TrEMBL record:
Name of the protein in question: 3'(2'),5'-bisphosphate nucleotidase
Species of provenance: Chenopodium quinoa
Cofactor requirements of the protein: Mg(2+)
Its EC number(s): 3.1.3.7
GO molecular function annotation: 3'(2'),5'-bisphosphate nucleotidase activity; inositol-1,4-bisphosphate 1-phosphatase activity; metal ion binding
Keyword Hydrolase: yes
Amino acid sequence: MYIGLSSLRIRTHFVIPTLNHKPKSSIFSFLNSSMSYNKELAAAKKAASLAAKLCQKVQKSLLQSDVQSRLDKSPVTVADYGSQAVVSFVLEHELSDEPFSLVAEEDSGDLRKDGAQDTLERIRVLVNDTIASESTYSVSPLSADGVLAAIDNGRSEGGPVGRHWVLDPIDAKIASYQVCEGDQYAIALALLDKGRVVLGVLACPNLPLAPLAVQTSAGPTGCLFSAVLGEGTYMDSLDGSSPVKVIVSPIENPEEASLFESYEAAHSSHDLSSSIAKKLGVKAPPVRIDSQAKYGALSRGDGAIYLRFPNAGYREKIWDHAAGSIVVTEAGGIVSDAAGNPLNFSKGNYLDLYKGIIASNQKLMPSLLKAIQQSIDEKAASL
Ligand SMILES: Nc1ncnc2c1ncn2[C@@H]1O[C@H](COP(=O)(O)O)[C@@H](OP(=O)(O)O)[C@H]1O
Ligand SMILES: [Mg+2]
């Protein structure tokens, strides 16, 4: 659900009134906490947008290439590394007066091996072209070592102390043949401060700007979701339109809900979510799309429920959920594990969870949790 621009104007042109007396502490601390991430938010949006530009360039060339080139998966790999290098470069450059710690999915190990020189050179050119396309940067092009170093900035362990950026340079993958239903990917960037996600940005190049339910195939795509703790969630177009505030679906009747789940059945049990949907009386078929674009779509009310139940033993990584979770919670939703426990991003690279990750609005959550536990119990009893 999109909200008019009036609230946005309040946000962007906000002026703190001259105060002759001490303000109520809750208001004052809110202003302090939200304003302290303005610089980081601008840097994160710039980083994710530029990385998305790099990914779109790779996707465009893949979709236009001959069949033989399409079978070659290396451009997709180039985009993953390139995206991470660009985000790392932009954050370090824009926030040069802050200590820099980045927890990210890729590392340069394979690129340093014999035979990887050509791939590294392609990444270097792609990264430099992308950085040069941003007119505010007048820096010398990165060397191959500079690119490797930018990628390896992402080796931080994160944790409960200090600030750490958390990056999935490409969540899911760029389509290499044609963009089909469900083919979504995201550049997902979040900031942890003392173990808590305080800011998140999700760039979703293939996600329609219009709600999924009304989108026609010809509609424009490319969404940039951003959220700061206490400030709400906004959606811009990746082409640079004005941001609009978004909120999660307000529906209270689960029968009217539609739910998001992974396109890949190997990533989340479609059987379990089908059992849950049946108990809730959900009528619509599940919407199956890749990546954290699901969180973005949920934050603007395209659907009302997100379900993710990986196989037992799979450990979820923080970069797969940090940005998406704040995008949803700042839009008024709840994100938790399958028992309703909040997600804890302060324990290094992994999340400790009961069964999986779920999200919905506040009204639907109690019946959702009940349906989940019943379905889990039934499944266990049938084994
Ligand atoms: N067996 C598995 N179970 C659950 N998630 C998995 C998985 N194997 C990979 N994934 C994760 O699922 C993410 C994609 O999410 P989704 O299913 O929502 O599209 C992948 O992100 P990457 O593509 O960044 O590695 C990966 O981290
Ligand atoms: Mg991922």
